[in-house]
Amino acid sequence: MTEAVEREAMDYDVVIVGGGPAGLAAAIRLKQQAEAAGAEISVALLEKGSEVGAHILSGAVIDPIAMNELFPNWKELGAPLETPVTEDKFLFLGPQGELDLGFVPFPKFVLNHGNYIASLANVCRWLATQAEALGVEVYPGMAASQLVYREDGSVKGVVAGVFGVGKDGQPKPDYQPGIELNGKYVFIAEGARGYLAKQLAAKFGLEDNCDPQKFGIGLKEVWQIPDAAFVPGYVQHTFGWPLDNATGGGSFMYHFGDNYVALGFVVHLNYKNPWLSPFDEFQRWKQHPSVRKFLEGGKRIAYGARAITEGGYQSVPQLHFPGGVLIGCSAGFVNLPRIKGSHNAMKTGMLAAEAAFAAIQAGREGDELVEYQTAYDNSWVKQELKVVRNVKPLLTRFGTLAGLLLGGIDMTIASLTKGFSLFGTLHHTKTDAASTGLAKDYEPIVYPKPDGEISFDKLSSVFLSSTMHEEDEPSHLKLKDPSIPISLNLPRYGEPARLYCPAGVYEVLYDEQGYNPRFQINFQNCVHCKTCDIKDPTQNIVWTTPQGGEGPNYPNM
Questions:
Q1: In this structure, how many other beta carbons lie within 10 angstroms of the beta carbon of residue 189?
Q2: Residues near 203 by beta carbon (within 8 Å), at least 6 away in sequence
Q3: Residue 271: is its pLDDT beyond 70?
Q4: 18, 188 in Cβ contact below 8 A?
C-alpha cells in the first residue's frame, strides 16, 4: 500500500507521543504553566495502548521526588502511591541458600525508605485523569506510526490512527487512513527502543556523540498471596543464582495493596550465552526457597515483559531535534543501581514542557529546544546518573560479584564528591546484539519443566497479559532479510529469538522427519517488549508499531 494518502490534519501547540510517566508529566506541566501565565496552550497526547496504562510495566518502587514537584498535594489528590516501603532487603542467592547483605554499607540513595510501592500502570491512569482535568486531549488506542516533516526538514507531527490494513498490505473495507496531528513541537515519549525515536536518532544523528544504549529485559508477575506470607511495604532485591557471575541481572519482590506481590526478574541483554532464556531463568528463580515461601498458596494474576534502558549517563543521546524532543525512556534515564527510572522520566518531561512553553510564548515553533538540553544538563537527573555512571560498565568488565563491589565503592565516592570517580568515566563499547556469543562456544541450557503452581510456560503467561492483535493485518515484526534466521542465526547462534522472546513469538519448526527448518513469527503473541529489536545478533528483526489498541492490556502492572 502506498503512502500517498489524503488525511485530515489537526493542529496543536504540542503533540506528545506516549502516555507513560514522561509524556503525562509533560502534558500536565504544559497546562500548569499556561494556567499560571493566564495563557492558552493546546496539547494532544497519543497512547497506542487500548487505554492509558495498558502498556505500562514497571516494578515499581517509586521515588516521589518528581511527583512532589508536579503535584505537591498528590496525597490529597489521591495519587495511588499508597504503600510506603517498610522493610528493604538485599540478598545474594546460591542454589539453595541466601546471604543477607544488610551488613553492607550501601549508599543512602540506593535504599528505599521514603519511597512507595505502586503499580506504575495505575499511577499513569491517575496522571491521565489529572491531565484531562487540566484540558489535555488524551487519545488512547491511537498508535503514532509515521513522522510528518515540514519543508525545511523539521518534524511537524505524526500520523496516528491507521486501521484496517489487511495482511496483504491492502486496505480492508473498514480501512481508516488515520489523521495527522501536527504541533509546534513534538515530544517523543514512546519508552525504551521506540519506533519513531529510532528513526529520529538515525535521521538527525542524535546518538553520534554518546555510547551505545544498553538494555535489560524485565519480566514481571503479580500475585495475590495469603495473609501469613504478606508483609505490607516489604521490598526484596536479589542477585546471584540462577544467573552465573558473567551474566548481569537480578530480581525484585514488592508487597503492596490488597495482598499483592509484584515480583520480577531482570536480565541484562549483553549476555553472551545464546542458549539463555530470560523467561525460564525467571521461572527457575521463583523456585528458590527465599522466593517460593512467599508464593505458596497464592495465585498468579498478571504477567508481562518490557525492555529497560540501562546505559545511563554515557548513553543519553542529544535530546532535541528540529521540531521536537526525546523525553523519558525514549532517551534512557533509568538509574540502574537504584532500579528506578519513572521519577527521572517525569522530571525530563517537565523540563521539556517548561522549555516548549517558553518557546511558544516567544512565538517560536519547529526549531530546536536547546533550552531543554541545557535544563537537563543542570538538573538533578543528570547528576543522579553521573554518580552511578560506572556501575554498569564495571559489571560488564568484572562480572556480578567484583562489579558490584567496585561499583558500590565507586558510586559511594561519587555521591560524596559530586561525581568524581577514580575510574573517570568508563564507556559502553558495543551493543547488546554484538555481545551475543556463538552457540558452539556454550553448552545448551536444560530448564526444568514448569510445575503449574509456582512456575509456568510462556503461552499460559501470555494469556494473563490479555495480549491481542488482529489476525488479518501485516505482522508488525519485520525481517530485513527473511533468509537470515535459518541460514545464519540458526547455525551460528542457535536462533536465539526463540529463547530471548518472553512471549513465544518466534519458533523454528521442522518437518516430520526433523529436517527443513523454517522460521515462524507468531506476532499475535507479542507483548511489545522490544527485546527482539535489541538482541537479535544480526539486527535483522525490526519492531514496528501495530495498529492502535493492540498488544498487551495490563491491568495493574
A1: 32
A2: 321
A3: yes
A4: yes
Residues 6+ apart with CB under 8 A from 255: 83, 117, 230, 231, 232, 233, 234, 235, 261
Q: How many helices (H) and strands (E) does the chain have?
A: 16, 24
Number of Cβ atoms within 10 Å of the Cβ of 207: 17
Whole-angstrom CA distances from 377 to 144, 331, 380, 386, 502 are: 29, 14, 9, 11, 36
Distance CA 390, CA 179 (A): 44
Check: pTM over 0.90? Answer yes or no. Answer: yes
Residue 406 has pLDDT above 50, yes or no: yes
| Side chain identity, residue 463 | F
Q: DSSP letter string over 366-392?
A: SS--HHHHHHHHTSHHHHHHHHTTTHH
Note the residue count of the chain: 557
Q: pLDDT tier at 3 (50, 70, 90 boundaries)?
A: low
Residues 339, 345: contact at Cβ < 8 Å? Answer: no
Question: Binning pLDDT at 50, 70 and 90, where does residue 2 land?
Answer: very low
Q: For residues 335 and 381, what is the distance between their CA atoms, to the nearest angstrom?
A: 9
Judged by phi (left if over 0) then psi (alpha if -120 to 50, else beta), residue 494 lies in left
Question: Which residues lie below 8 Å from residue 13, measured CB to CB, with a gap of 6+?
Answer: 30, 41, 42, 43, 183, 184, 185, 356, 360
Q: What is the DSSP string of 191-217?
A: -TT-HHHHHHHHHHTTTTTSPPP-EEE
Q: Residue 520 pairs with which residues in a beta bridge?
A: 507
Residue 249 DSSP SS3: strand
Q: Is the dihedral of CA 18, 267, 215, 379 positive or negative?
A: positive
Are 47 and 76 within 8 A, CB to CB?
no
User: Could you give the CA distance from residue 196 to residue 147 in angstroms, rounded to a whole number?
Assistant: 7
Rounded CA separation 101/533 (Å): 36
Q: Quote the CA–CA distance of 265 and 225 in Å, as a whole number.
A: 19
User: What confidence tier does 104 reach under pLDDT thresholds 50, 70, 90?
Assistant: confident
The alpha carbon dihedral of 203, 23, 54, 264 has a sign of: positive
Q: What is the mean pLDDT of residues 528-541?
A: 98
Residue position matching grid coordinates 516533516: 149
Percent of residues in the chain assigned helix, strand, coil, to nearest 5 = 30, 25, 45
Q: Return the residue matching grid coordinates 560524596.
A: 416
* SS3 state of residue 10: strand
% of the chain at pLDDT higher than 70: 99
* Of 378, 438, 388, nearest in space to 413 by CA: 388
Contact 218, 71 (CB under 8 A): no
Residue 208, Cβ density class (10 Å: 0-12 exposed, 13-18 middle, ≥19 buried): exposed
DSSP class of 173: E
* Contact (CB, 8 A) for 264 and 185: no
Helix (H, G, I), strand (E, B) or coil at 401: helix
β-strand partners of 147:
158
Strand positions, DSSP E, 430-487:
477-479
